[in-house]
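[agent] plan:
  1. take the single chain provided in the ticket
  2. run structure prediction with default settings
  3. attach structure tokens to the ticket
  4. add a short note for the reviewer (M.T.)
[agent] executing step 1
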Amino acid sequence: PKGPNKMAEVQLEVQEVFAGKEAPSVLTGFRRLFYLVTPNETSFQTLEEVPPYIEQSTPYFFGMIVIEFLVACLKNKRSPVRLNDSISSLSAGMISQLSNSLLEGLYFIPYIWVHENYRLMDLPWDSPITWWTAFILADFAYYWLHRMSHEMNILWAAHQVHHSSEDYNLTTALRQSAFQKVGTLFLFELPKALLVPPPAFLVHREFNILYQFWIHTEMVTTLGPLEYIINTPSHHRVHHGRNPYCIDKNYAGTLIIFDRMFGTFVKEEEKVVYGLTHPLNSWDPIWVQLCHYMHIWKTFWATPGLSNKLSVLWKGPGWAPGKPRLGCIEDIPKVKFPEPKYDSKVPTLWSIYTAVHFVLALILFQEVFAVSKAQCPNR
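[agent] step 2 finished; step 3 output follows
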């Protein structure tokens, strides 16, 4: 019949817009979000063979956002999502994705060059040893990249985008910086090129990012014994908190063991208040990306002495002359749940208008992004 065939074609087109023509099965797509994959299915000889895991996960992101919304409404009788905050988060994610697509080639060229010319040994691409080595090194490097993104002001300028939401739900996971990759390659990624083949590096970089999506939720309380090994929603809620006990804690990507090893682990105790210690009070996704760079610029020129000026860049965001490298915990404003959140009220019709147009813009963005990827298939 013409009707069912037409409907199937439309569904396929929608799937291709969001996940690509070689989209995985539903079960495989969900497994990927939790790093539940095997070395055999995720080991590749060349970069060109590595699937665009993050792109293909887009429909699962939105599917889980809807599920979280429904579960929260049934459980708490209220929505965990504010339209203004969620659109701000998703807009930041779109800006970040655009930036990443422009920088992707530049990002891999140095890594490939170092691996081809200076690798310490040849690890076979299809060996489980290579897969697990890449997994551990990817997570270890992410721990230090994440930690330094909190302890170095110039890196915090990018990372604060992710922490700027005062909500904590799955849309918050997509609130990402357009500049996070800039300046981090040489410090935290290139050392892995001495050992990890580029395809394995790419696979685990993407899975490390994917894993961190689902932990941005308040719907999951604790996971029992797994809390000792892996990063969980409970651990990551602490990381997003602005309560004094939450500051600079729980940097884990996939495994929580590095926080436990290096003394940055804290268990979730009192109810977490989310966001920056000094909230931005803005929904503007461009301002969120740039505001801390402007703050650094002004502080740099206002601070006397070359040594102090350099410290503005390389020490913590709370540093000032005469203070410790990371600033003083006493300077952190004391908060207690519930804290009032920045909000702006608009008529219901305006909210519906904004939501509809944002969805249309998102679909158009994904279509343009898919076309650009099709024209440059080699990542």
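[agent] step 4 note for reviewer: The longest helix spans residues 83-118.
[agent] ticket updated
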